Amino acid sequence: MTAEPTGGRSPEDLEKENLRLTRRLERLEDNVRRLEEFQDANSTLAARLLEELEAERANSERLLLNVLPQRIVDRLAAGETLIADRYESVSVLFADVVGFTGISARLAPADLIQDMNRLFTGFDAICEATGVEKIKTIGDAYLVVGGLGGEADHPARIAKTALEMIELVESTTGLEHGII
C-alpha cells in the first residue's frame, strides 16, 4: 500500500484548503484587475495632463510672441536670461492710437480688445511684408524696429511701414466698434 500525498489530512481538510486557496486566488485576480484599471486610468490621466501642458505651453509661447520677437522667444527658450544686443544703426517706429483714452472710455473692454487686436494684426502683417520687426505692444502703442537683421535700407522700410499703417488706419474706418 502506498501513502497518498495528503500530508495526513482528510479529504474534507483538503477540500477546505482548496476552497481557501481558490478564494485567495480570486482576490489576487481581483487585485490584479483593479491594478490594471488603476494603471489604465493613470495612463489616461497622464496623457490628458500632457495634452493640457502642451496646450498651455503653446498658449504661453503665443502670448510671448505678442510682446517679444520670435528670435528673442527662441533665445529665452534656449535658456538665455540676459538678452542685450548692440546695433550700430536701426530705425524705430512708434505707432499710437490718437484719442485712445476717450475711445476706451466709451467701449466695452471686450469690444476694445477685439478692435485693437484687428488693428494690430493688420500692423503685424505690414511688418512681415516690409521686413521690419515688431518689438512689442503696450496698450495702444506699437513699437517696430528696422535694421535688426543688418538691412542697410531700414530707414526706407520703416517709412514704408509707417505709410502702410496710416493707409490701413484710414481704410479701416469700418472696424466693428468704431475704434478708428
Task: Explain this structure.
- The longest helix is centred in the N-terminal third of the chain and has 57 residues, at 11-67.
- The chain contains 5 helices and 3 strands.
- The radius of gyration is 34 Å and the shape is elongated.
- It is 62% helix and 10% strand.
- Strands 1-3-2 form a 3-stranded antiparallel beta sheet.
- The protein folds into 2 domains: 9-67; 91-171, 2-Layer Sandwich (Alpha-Beta Plaits).
- The termini are far apart.
- It is mostly helical.
- The mean pLDDT is 87.
- Helix 4 packs antiparallel against helix 5.
- The protein has helices at residues 11-67, 70-77, 100-106, 109-130, 154-171, and strands at residues 91-96, 133-138, 141-146.
Compile the SSE list and pairings.
Blueprint: H1 11-67, H2 70-77, E1 91-96, H3 100-106, H4 109-130, E2 133-138, E3 141-146, H5 154-171
Antiparallel strand pairs: 1-3, 2-3
